[in-house]
Amino acid sequence: MKDDRKDGLPLEGAVTGSETKGYYVGLPEIESLDEDVNVAILITSQSIGEEPLGRKLMESLLACFGEMPPVIRAVILMNEAVRLAAEGSPCVGLLETLQRQGTQVMCCSTSLSTLGVSQAVGTRAGILRIAETMLSAKKVITI
After folding, report:
1. What is the pLDDT of residues 56-76, one digit of tens each?
2. Which of 15, 35, 131, 141 could serve as 60's disulfide partner, Cβ 3.0–4.6 Å?
3. Distance separating alpha carbons of residues 129 and 131, to the nearest angstrom
4. What residue spans define the domains of the chain?
5. What is the pLDDT of residues 79-109, one digit of tens each?
6. How far is Cα 44 from Cα 119, in angstroms, rounded to an integer?
7. What HEC string does 119-143 produce?
8. 108 forms bridges with which residues in the sheet?
9. How many Cβ atoms sit within 10 Å of the Cβ of residue 5?
10. pTM of the predicted model, to two decimals?
């Protein structure tokens, strides 16, 4: 559901899939990943803020990332966020979309083991690989 708000955001409910088209404004025109675009997203929780709104916000944000030009080199899932990549998570398809666009989806191996989670999407990554990815990124955005 799209409205005529100046910021282009919907009024209510989670936004996923094709519903996100046209909701973001003011993005730089980036055709594809290149040397100048090296962004890593570090996610440490299953939600952005309090439940249940926080979960809807996380799903909507991941959906938007998949609808935008491919500018994200890596999505790093640590701590409780590894559950976003687990079988049955509503975010699995959204993360798969990012992977198809060339984004690495990395799941912290320590978090997976400690929480007993098996990922359905992404690759298992040790803390050294995660640190290297973060340090080599031009920008790390923590969610």
Report:
1. 999 999 999 998 888 899 999
2. 15
3. 5
4. 44-142
5. 999 999 999 999 999 999 999 999 999 999 9
6. 15
7. ECCCEEECHHHHHHHHHHCCEEEEC
8. 125
9. 10
10. 0.76
Number of Cβ within a 10 Å radius of residue 49: 10
Report the topology of domain 44-142. Hypothetical Protein Ychn; Chain: A, (3.40.1260)
Got the DSSP string for the chain? -----TT---SSS---GGGGTT---S-----S--TT--EEEEE-SSSSSSTTHHHHHHHHHHHHHHHS-S-EEEEEE-GGGGGGGBTT-TTHHHHHHHHHTT-EEEEEHHHHHHHT--BSSSEEE-HHHHHHHHHHSSEEEE-
Longest dimension (CA), the chain: 46
Is there a contact between 57 and 47 (Cβ–Cβ < 8 Å)? Answer: yes
Which is nearest to 45 in space by CA: 11, 10, 82, 8?
82
